[in-house]
Design a protein that fits this description.
Largest sheet: 5 strands, antiparallel
Oligomer: single chain
Number of helices: 4
Distance between the termini: 49 Å
Strand order of the largest sheet: 1-2-4-3-5
Strand content: 25-35%
C-alpha cells in the first residue's frame, strides 16, 4: 500500500473537513434540510444518544436555528425507532422533549494568510432533547412499534428535501 506524503495527506484531510462541514449544517455551508446523521466535533448538526437507564435513552438533535421543529422531532423519533429496532426492544414512547437554543462557536477556514483564515464566528443553533422509554410489548397505545415507525419516518426524511426557511436575524443577534 502506497503512503501519502505530508502535502498530499494535508490536502486529503482538508478536503475531508470541507466535505464534513458541507453536510454538517454550519451556517452558510450546505443549504438543504438537516440531515439524518450522527453529529460529531467537525459537523455538530445531527443526532446523538446516551443511555439514561434500563431501557431508557436520551436523544439529542442539533441543527441551525432555522431548522423546523417538525423536522427535528421526526429525526428524534426516527432515531428512537432505529435504536428500538436495532436492539430488538420492540416498542418505544417519547416521554419528554425539551428545546433550547445556543450559540455555536467555530473558526472559519480559508487558506492560511488569506483574509478569511481563522475568523472566529458564531452560529445560532437549536438542540432538541428527547427522553425515550422502550418495552418488549406495549402496555398502552402511547407506545409505537419501532420497526414500522423507523421504516415510515426514515422514508419521509429521505423524501423531504425542502430547504429550511431563512435564518431569523434575531437569532443571529443573540450570538453577537
Amino acid at each position: 500500500m502506497r503512503r501519502l506524503s505530508g502535502t498530499r495527506w494535508g490536502a486529503v484531510s482538508a478536503a475531508s473537513v470541507v466535505l464534513a462541514a458541507c453536510s454538517g449544517g454550519l451556517t452558510g455551508v450546505g443549504q438543504g434540510p438537516l440531515a439524518y446523521k450522527y453529529s460529531n466535533a467537525i459537523a455538530p448538526s445531527g443526532f446523538s444518544e446516551s443511555i439514561i437507564g434500563p431501557d431508557r435513552y436520551r436523544i439529542e438533535v442539533k441543527g441551525p436555528a432555522n431548522t423546523p421543529r417538525e423536522r427535528m422531532e421526526k429525526i428524534a423519533t426516527t432515531r428512537a425507532a432505529e435504536i428500538g429496532k436495532d436492539n430488538k426492544l420492540g416498542y418505544f414512547r417519547i416521554d419528554s422533549v425539551q428545546l433550547n437554543t445556543f450559540c455555536q462557536k467555530y473558526i472559519q477556514g480559508g487558506k492560511p494568510g488569506s483574509a478569511n483564515a481563522g475568523n472566529k464566528k458564531q452560529s445560532a443553533m437549536v438542540v432538541m432533547t428527547a427522553d425515550v422509554s422502550y418495552t418488549k410489548s406495549p402496555p398502552d397505545a402511547s407506545f409505537l412499534d419501532a420497526r414500522q415507525t423507523f421504516d415510515r419516518y426514515r422514508a419521509e426524511l429521505d423524501q423531504d428535501q425542502t430547504a429550511p426557511p431563512p435564518l431569523d436575524p434575531a437569532a443571529m443577534q443573540q450570538c453577537g
